[in-house]
Amino acid sequence: MLEYLGQLMSDLVEFFDSRFDPFRDTLDILLVAGGIYWLLLLIRGTRAIQILVGLIVLIALTLVSQLLELAALGLILERLLEPAVVIIVILFQNDIRRALARVGRGIFPSFSNAQEIQVVEEIVRAAGSLSQRRHGALIVLERESNLGDLIEAGVSVDASLSKELLSSIFQPSSPMHDGAVVIQEGRVASAGCILPLTLRTDLPEGLGTRHRAAVGITEETDALVVVVSEETSSISVVLGGEMLRGLDAPRLRVVLRDVLGGERKELPEASEVTGRLEVAEEPGSGQATAS
Fold first, then answer.
1. d(Cα 253, Cα 260) in Å, to the nearest integer?
2. How far is C-alpha 189 from the geometric centre of its chain's CA atoms?
3. Using alpha carbons only, how large is the chain's radius of gyration in Å?
4. Which of 87, 238, 255, 276 has the smallest number of CB atoms closer than 10 Å to its CB?
5. Strands (DSSP E) along 150-241, which ranges?
6. 6 burial type by CB count under 10 A (0-12 exposed, 13-18 middle, 19+ buried)
7. How far apart are CA 63 and CA 44, in angstroms?
8. DSSP label of 267
9. What is the Cα–Cα distance from 200 to 119, expressed in whole angstroms?
10. What does the alpha-carbon distance between residue 212 and residue 131 come to, in Å, rounded to a whole number?
């Protein structure tokens, strides 16, 4: 093993002596490091990071088996890692689509500030009204991740987003009130959708199917979900598998604007939301917004 390490160091020294170009190679390293960092930010908080850790462990075990000359273990790991490219494409297909969509979105923006404000206001008005009447609701806002592969049994709507439309869909007498409404590019794309349920067992007690579905879809995608509880009338926001509960209409507005406007990867703390709301409501601040 010592001879192997010595030969490896010798080869590295010879390589740098003969081929190292300070400017070109430094630029190359910075670009690769930046790409890896961007990829880690993209998959942070999703199941993809767990899969990535598993692949890194397998690669590390392969290197250890080569150093210690463990023939059987090395052979098994090599056979497992041979189709690594295909495995990565299959396992990370949602994240790859999200990355490409984000790049395209940066070149061709499709969600204007005016549209964003309108979407937020209509959802806040609808959630507040539904909460007052104790009508349950599940509203999914598609972002970079395409939700088509994870949504089943939805009814195509393709209509302008409005408080009145959302309120009518989630009326208890509506045949679609138990499913989710999906909003794509500022429009109500479909209603009555069935979402994947989370398998987590550490969720707070008292959360029903709507909340489990909200956590489930956000574990798989970067979607932002608003949930109105039929039992407690409380409003919750779910992002990245994490839930912020006990919101009212003004606080919901703060959270939605923060996430959609800044493209946050995680939800703000409840204290942060309350603090920002109090600042916005101070006389003379010029930021107060009527609910």
1. 11
2. 19
3. 24
4. 87
5. 155-160, 180-184, 187-193, 224-228, 235-239
6. exposed
7. 26
8. P
9. 30
10. 19
How do beta strands 180-184 and 137-141 pair? parallel
Cα(15)–Cα(17) distance, integer angstroms: 5
Per-domain boundaries in the chain: 2-107, 113-281
Give CA–CA dist 113/110, Å, rounded.
10
Whole-number average pLDDT of the chain:
78
Q: How many CA atoms lie within 13 A of 251 on its CB side?
A: 18
92 vs 10, 203, 221, 263, CA distance in Å? 37, 26, 11, 21
Q: pLDDT tens across 103-135, in order?
A: 655 544 445 566 788 889 999 999 999 999 999
Architecture category of domain 113-281 in CATH: 3-Layer(aba) Sandwich (3.40)
Read off φ and ψ for residue 283, nearest 5 degrees: -60, 135
List of residues 6+ apart from 153 with CB closer than 8 A: 179, 192, 193, 194
Segments in 221-283 forming alpha helices (H): 249-262, 270-281
Distance CA 65, CA 166 (A): 58
Q: Is residue 67 within 8 Å of 61, Cβ to Cβ?
A: no
Tell me the C-alpha distance between 264 and 32, whole Å: 24
Q: What's the CA angle centered on 45, arms 147 and 33, to 5 degrees?
A: 105
Rounded CA gap, 280 and 95, in Å?
Answer: 36
Compute, in degrees rounded to 10, the torsion defined by CA atoms 152, 156, 158, 159: -110
Q: In whole angstroms, what is the distance from residue 157 CA to residue 148 CA?
A: 14
